[in-house]
Amino acid sequence: MTTLVKENIRISIDSIRAHMTRSVLTILIIAFGIMALVGILTSIDAIRFYLDKNFTMMGANTFSITSRQSRIEGASRKSLAKYYRVINWQDASAFKAQYNFPAIVSISMQATGIATMKYASQKTHPNIQVIGTDENYILTSGYEIEKGRNFTPHEVFYGNYSTILSSEVANKLFPNKADPLDKVVTIGSAKYKVIGVLKSKGASLMGSDNLCLLPVTNARHAYSRPGESFTISVLARDPLQLDAAIGEAHGLMRAIRDARTTEEDPFEITKSDNLANMLYDNIKYLRLAATIIGIITLVGAAIGLMNIMLVSVTERTNEIGVRKALGANKSTIRNQFLMEAIVIGQLGGMAGIVLGILIGNILAIIIGAGFIVPWAWIFLGVTLCFLVAVISGLIPALKAAELDPVESLRYE
Q1: Which of 264, 266, 329, 357 has a CA that sits 20 to 30 A from residue 159's CA?
Q2: DSSP 3-state of 137
C-alpha cells in the first residue's frame, strides 16, 4: 500500500469521524442492504445443507416402488376414470423373492397414523404413526438402531407381537431415561414387546420421530383394510449401478403385474433424491428473489451514499480550496473523496456481512444444519459494496476535483 493511499484512507477516516452521525446512518443503510442479501442467502444455504443431510440418510442408491395414483382421462363428458390396481402383498412378496439384482429389498405398509400407545400410567397422543415393516426396512429407510435390535426374519414371517419405537415415543412412554427394552406396551388394543429403539432423525423430511414399527405380517392382520397398498424399497449395493437396478426392477414389476407391452406402468418408481431435486429447483427461485431484494436495497444505499457525498463536497468547499492552494491537484482531490466513499462502503459491508451471517445461522442452528460461513456470499458482499461505493462516490469526487480553488476559498 503506497503512502498516498494510506494518507487518503487516514483523511477519509478523519472526515467520517468529523461527520459521525451522517456517516453512521450511511453505513447502516449499506449494512442493512448487505445484511438482507447475505442473511437470506446464508439461510438458503442452511436449508440446502439440511436437505442434503436428510436425503443422504436415505442414500443416493435407494428407490421405491409404489402404486400409481388413479386419474381422470379427458376433459369432456366422456372422461373416463383410469384405475390402477394397488401393489398388494402377493405382488410385493413376489418381487422380493424374484429380484436377483445385488440389492436389499424391503416391504412396508402404512398401518395407521392415529394410533395411541400406552405403558403403565404413560400415554401418548393419538398421533403415532404405525408402519408395518420387514427385517430390511431400517436399512432401506435410513434409520439406525440406538438400543436393542432389529426384527428377525422369523419374527416377520410369523408376525410376532414385537415393536421398535422411535426415540421420541420411547421418551414419552418411558420418562426419566427408563429402559424400554423388553417392556410390553399397548398399541391400540394389542400388546407388543419392545425390542429396539431408533436413533432420532429430528424433524426431518425423510422420516418421523413419532412412530413405531411392527412386523409387516402382524400389521397386515391388525390393521387390515380393503385395497391395502404396500411399498417396495430397494437399496442398491453399488450407487453406480442404481440405474441398472431400477431397470431390472422395472422389468420384473411389469412381469409380476402382467402389464401388456402397450400398457403404461401400473406402478411408480421414485429415486430417493427426486424430492430433493424438486426442492432444489424451488430454492433457485427463492435465491433469485433474495438477490433481487438485496440489490434493490443496495441501490437505495447507493443513492443515499451519493447524496451524502454530494452534501459533503458542498460543506467542504472551503477545505477543498485550501488543499488546492497548498498544491493538491485534481486527481488528489478526486481520489480523496472517492476513497472516503469506498471506506464508508466497506465499513457498511463488513457490518452487513457480520449481521447477515449471524441472522442466517439462527435458522441453521434451529434446523440443526450447523454453523455456516458463506464464503461466496461474503466475497459477493465485499465486491458489491466496493462497486456501490465507486459508483456513488465517483460523481461527487469529480465535482470536488473540478471546483475552482479561488471560488472555493471564498465559499462560506
Answers
A1: 266
A2: helix
